[in-house]
């Protein structure tokens, strides 16, 4: 890799050392910033080491400090208001900075009252809000403290990320958002839209969408989780989402990690430390790499960073393929309504290794995904689960039993509660599972409204049921994959750049899965030879979406279902006592 120093157009300051000095950072003289080739899609800056200039005089156990950034020079929710303290900037106009500080606090409070913002608040989102306000105020003539202004204009607004956030302002609602709603596009867009409206109303509408999108992308890609002691000398830590100037130029590569960031417990300074034993031995200039996450997962990286580290050698990477809920081939059972009641994330984890893909069937969540495909032990091909469209009657009955008045007093209230919980776009119901009856006895004598954990226990104690569920699921999955591939191909010409990257990743996994099926090659991880001895790092599935944008439909809305005259459970008393605390409260 050829080292390319930065030109004067890449940073508002003349040199990175001047920039570091402004933020109070200390750099090893062998550490510098230059053009990286880690990503071919966007201009990328990275941290580099020049061996001949590297100061190793304080090296300990093969570790060399490359960078030291004071905690007070980082941007987090703990430090943000400290930057607005006018006494910290004696060379700037105190009166103007006070005016800015008052305005920032007022606008920040107003923005946080927006329902979309308050319902999806996170540390990263709050940092985004601060810098949107800083940017808008500066455009309108307000003075900003020098560190904020330089970081805003020299880094955040000039960073080219290429992530999903980068393109939010050009997304087509009928193409990008619908095609990838299952990956959180709807939530991202709702936040982007709310922040754009807020920005336009307070600072003017010119170019505000592009600015908001740029700041969302830049901040989301540069935030680090910095550990802090609960108290001095404590072994307990909490983490703060933090922007660390200069350190945030350093790129990720789990294959070539040669450094890590840490905290000096005596000063709380943030450190970048080079591991000399992990450095290229034959390169005079080389790039510094840290690990953002211990595992490489396609969606998370494309979403936040606009790239995905390609797997090499025996390394394993992952893709958490979430299901597009517009597809439903099981006419007798709405699998996505089922998953919602049972709090199952509709997501299939693929393992990418040696140019092949495998479904990770060793996860507990995979077994959960199979549940609606378990056949009725009494025989036939129907699911062992039946849905009760009148489950609200059970809710009214249990509420009456817990609180006293007659069941009729609660019918309308419970009907509204269940209906609204089913119909909202969240991937989780959040109510006791009293809508689905599970038949788990071959003689048809045992059935109940079981929880997810109970279902896993009673259904998958049988290898035969598990095997039949796998077969039914694979039939469903083949239909889904063919449909999904068509949807991706049809939409590609109209997608934004980052959406197209995601479509290409998903198309590759889908095609490779189908090809392995056709060639009778393993498609499940547990079918890979000697898989138990292959190192497989845990890769968490994404959490359920609060806003999936999917319009759930009750089965009763499309066709008239029987009013559940057949018994719903053999264990009404046990089920009531299981959820008694819920029904004691107001519904």
UniProtKB/TrEMBL annotation:
SET domain: residues covered: 29-293
Family matches, as PROSITE patterns: SET
Matching InterPro entries: SET_dom (IPR001214), SET_dom_sf (IPR046341)
UniProt protein name: KLTH0F16390p
Organism of this sequence: Lachancea thermotolerans (strain ATCC 56472 / CBS 6340 / NRRL Y-8284)
């Amino acid at each position: 890799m050829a080292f390319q120093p930065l030109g004067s157009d890449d940073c508002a300051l003349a040199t990175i050392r001047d920039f570091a000095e402004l933020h109070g950072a200390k750099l090893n003289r062998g550490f510098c910033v230059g053009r990286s080739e880690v990503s071919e899609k966007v201009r990328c800056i990275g941290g580099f080491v020049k061996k001949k200039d590297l100061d190793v005089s304080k090296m300990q156990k093969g570790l060399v400090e490359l960078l030291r950034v004071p905690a007070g020079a980082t941007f987090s929710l703990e430090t943000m208001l400290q930057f607005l303290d006018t006494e910290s900037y004696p060379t700037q106009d105190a009166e103007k900075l006070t005016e800015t500080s008052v305005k920032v606090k007022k606008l920040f409070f107003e923005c946080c009252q927006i329902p979309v913002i308050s319902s999806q608040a996170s540390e990263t989102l709050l940092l985004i809000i601060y810098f949107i306000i800083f940017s808008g105020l500066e455009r309108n003539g307000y003075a900003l403290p020098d560190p904020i202004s330089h970081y805003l204009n020299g880094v955040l607004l000039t960073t080219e990320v290429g992530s999903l956030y980068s393109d939010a302002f050009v997304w087509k609602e009928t193409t990008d958002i619908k095609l990838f709603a299952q990956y959180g596009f709807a939530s991202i867009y709702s936040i982007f839209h709310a922040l754009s409206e807020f920005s336009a109303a307070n600072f003017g509408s010119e170019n505000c969408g592009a600015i908001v999108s740029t700041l969302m992308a830049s901040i989301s890609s540069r935030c680090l989780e910095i550990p802090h002691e609960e108290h001095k000398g404590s072994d307990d830590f909490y983490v703060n989402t933090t922007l660390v100037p200069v350190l945030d130029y350093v790129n990720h590569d789990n294959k070539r990690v040669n450094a890590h960031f840490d905290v000096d417990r005596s000063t709380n300074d943030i450190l970048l430390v080079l591991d000399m034993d992990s450095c290229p031995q034959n390169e005079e200039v080389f790039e510094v790499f840290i690990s953002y996450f211990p595992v490489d997962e396609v969606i998370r990286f494309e979403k936040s960073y606009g790239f995905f580290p390609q797997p090499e050698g025996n390394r394993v990477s992952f893709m958490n393929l979430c299901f597009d809920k517009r597809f439903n081939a099981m006419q007798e059972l709405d699998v996505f309504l089922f998953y919602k009641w049972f709090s199952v994330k509709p997501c299939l984890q693929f393992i990418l290794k040696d140019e092949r893909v495998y479904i990770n069937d060793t996860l507990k969540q995979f077994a959960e995904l199979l549940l609606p495909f378990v056949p009725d032990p009494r025989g036939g091909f129907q699911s062992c689960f039946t849905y009760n469209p009148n489950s609200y009657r059970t809710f009214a009955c249990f509420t009456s039993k817990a609180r006293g008045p007659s069941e009729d007093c609660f019918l309308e209230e419970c009907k509204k509660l269940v209906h609204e919980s089913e119909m909202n776009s969240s991937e989780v119901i959040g109510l006791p599972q009293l809508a689905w009856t599970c038949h788990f006895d071959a003689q048809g004598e045992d059935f109940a409204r079981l929880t997810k954990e109970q279902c896993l226990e009673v259904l998958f104690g049988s290898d035969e049921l598990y095997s039949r569920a796998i077969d039914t699921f694979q039939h469903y999955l083949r239909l889904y994959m063919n449909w999904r591939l068509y949807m991706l191909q049809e939409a590609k010409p109209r997608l934004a750049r980052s959406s197209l990257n995601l479509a290409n990743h998903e198309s590759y996994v889908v095609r490779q899965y189908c090809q392995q099926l056709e060639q009778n090659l393993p498609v499940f991880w547990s079918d890979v030879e000697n898989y138990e001895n292959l190192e497989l790092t845990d890769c968490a599935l994404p959490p359920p979406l609060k806003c999936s944008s999917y319009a759930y439909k009750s089965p009763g809305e499309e066709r008239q279902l029987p009013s559940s005259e057949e018994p719903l459970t053999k264990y009404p008393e046990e089920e009531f006592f299981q959820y008694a605390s819920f029904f004691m409260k107001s519904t």
